[in-house]
From TrEMBL:
Keywords: Kelch repeat, Repeat, Signal. This is Uncharacterized protein. Pfam families: Kelch_1. Residues 1-18 form the signal peptide. InterPro entries: Gal_Oxase/kelch_b-propeller, Gal_Oxidase_central_sf, Kelch-typ_b-propeller, Kelch_1.
Length: 412
């Protein structure tokens, strides 16, 4: 059993000066801890000017990487003995451990010693968890065990993310690993039967994951199933066509539609086939796609239409409509539909020389406009992005300037 530490931080609003709207109660969990912020009528020193408070409320400007980000509760700029700035929520000081008053350190490595916390004349240990609460934008989380690009990432029904295959330092990979968002760690699971990259992975309605095609020297027609309850891979029916760079979509009837891609002779396919999980077989089907590659260039599906750079593609009519332009030109980026219905586009290649970029931007389907958001810490392309059940976006691996194949993982 995972131990759950529950910290109750009481935020007072009665003594907030110049604040007109009350933020709602706020709770969230990071790593193993759940933290709940509760409104209270008792006084809080962070807002008490007579308590010699030196805190500045965070600047929520999105263009300044060194500043605190917007948050659903007010956050403050705390400074440590080394004058390092951390953003953290206003918190009830009495629950914080005091720092060692000689070494100015905390007994836990999961805390930072803050001198001018406004809590007390003595320095207090602020848990990193409380610091992360205040950030939006990108945060590093643990590295994957294998550096990889051209891989897949799928959110399982448990909320855990399954990463499969790709290309790494040793070439094409058959390895797979699992990210647990509740503890922020990676664990290996069994290897696929085939190494593959430029493949697809789809979560079926029974919870299993169907992996299809891809490349590992040849373009593959094989497919295999991952069972999360046993952590094992089993081969399933072969596709009619070998396909790599293709696209797979789970239909509402539970079947999987595989479209486009390239075959072993380098031909671009416009054909499509359907996988029936109840019989483990494939049947060819008609496809209205004019170009099988259209769907794999990093597009996001919005109301069954594909957002790709500055155009929306409607597969039912085959019609492209222009929409607002992205701020940065990019390819092999990711596009994720967030819970607020905006689309987060991150990273990508900028030119044919393989220069990759860290910029990220948000597309608002209501206004058809793009807005810059904070940059990834690491520029990359051929990475993955998965929307987690807590609303955050997990970005994994890809090709990055410094290390080539990356094991670096970030959360938005
Ligand atoms: C979370 O709990 C697990 C299991 O108790 C432990 O192995 C892990 O180190 C903990 N993680 C953190 C960040 O405390
Ligand atoms: C916040 O939480 C407290 C304690 O659980 C509760 O009494 C209060 O009604 C909540 N306020 C809002 C706005 O949800
Ligand atoms: C501000 O803090 C001082 C010292 O801690 C306390 O005496 C005073 O009551 C506080 N004022 C408010 C409005 O909370
Ligand atoms: C917040 O930061 C931005 C960009 O760094 C700056 O232009 C703006 O003046 C700052 N706002 C405040 C209130 O400090
Ligand atoms: C701490 O950092 C801030 C902002 O970077 C700076 O304005 C201030 O002078 C620094 N204070 C000390 C004591 O170095
Ligand atoms: C430091 O802490 C110790 C134990 O908590 C206390 O006895 C001592 O008076 C403190 N020293 C100062 C300078 O605050
Ligand atoms: C904290 O980290 C340091 C160095 O990384 C290590 O020596 C020390 O044992 C750690 N302390 C705790 C309580 O984990
Ligand atoms: C991630 O890759 C770096 C080298 O790029 C390596 O130093 C580090 O140990 C790797 N992390 C894991 C968890 O394997
Ligand atoms: C699937 O295709 C591979 C060659 O790609 C072949 O070796 C294998 O026997 C086929 N499996 C079935 C069940 O047809």
């Amino acid at each position: 059993m995972r131990s759950i530490i529950v910290l109750f931080f009481i935020i007072s609003l009665s003594s907030v000066k110049g604040q007109t709207t009350q933020p709602p109660n706020y709770s969230c969990s990071e790593n193993n801890a759940s933290i709940q912020f509760t409104l209270s009528s008792s006084a809080h020193s962070a807002w008490n000017s007579t308590a010699n408070c030196a805190l500045q409320q965070c600047n929520t400007s999105l263009n300044d990487n060194n500043n605190c980000r917007s948050s659903s509760t007010p956050c403050y700029d705390y400074r440590t003995i080394n004058n390092i700035s951390y953003c953290a929520l206003g918190i009830l000081c009495s629950i914080l451990e005091r720092c060692n008053n000689i070494t100015q350190t905390c007994s836990s490595n999961n805390s930072v010693c803050v001198i001018n916390s406004c809590c007390s004349p003595q320095a207090v240990c602020l848990p990193f968890l409380a610091i992360q609460m205040c950030n939006t934008g990108w945060l590093y989380t643990r590295d994957m065990n294998d550096a990889r690009a051209y891989h897949t990432a799928s959110r399982l029904s448990s909320g855990i993310v399954l990463v499969t295959g790709g290309w790494g330092d040793t070439g094409h990979l058959n390895s797979a690993e699992l990210y647990d968002p509740s503890i922020g760690t990676w664990a290996t699971t069994s290897n696929m039967n085939n190494a593959r990259y430029y493949h697809t992975a789809s979560v079926l309605s029974n919870g299993n994951v169907l992996v299809t095609g891809g490349a590992n020297g040849n373009i593959l027609n094989s497919a295999e199933l991952y069972d999360p309850s046993t952590g094992t891979w089993t081969p399933t029916g072969n596709m009619t066509n070998a396909r790599g760079f293709h696209k797979a979509s789970v239909l509402s009837n539970g079947k999987v539609l595989v479209t486009g891609g390239v075959d072993d002779n380098g031909n671009i396919l416009n054909s499509a086939e359907l996988y029936d999980p109840s019989t483990s077989t494939w049947t060819t089907t008609a496809s209205e796609l004019s170009n099988g590659l259209v769907l794999v260039t990093g597009g996001a599906l919005i109301n069954n239409r594909v957002l790709n750079s500055a155009e929306l593609y409607d597969p039912s009519t085959g019609i492209w409509t222009t929409t607002g332009s992205m701020t940065w030109t990019r390819y092999s980026h990711t596009a994720s539909v967030l819970s607020n219905a905006k689309v987060l586009v991150a990273g990508g290649g900028a030119d044919t020389f393989g220069t990759c970029i860290s910029s990220a931007e948000l597309y608002d389907p209501l206004t058809s406009t793009w807005t810059a958001t904070s940059h990834l810490h690491d520029a990359r392309y051929h990475h993955t992005a998965s929307v987690l059940s807590n609303g955050k976006v997990l970005v994994t691996g890809g090709v990055d300037i410094s290390t080539l194949f990356s094991n670096i993982t970030e959360l938005y």
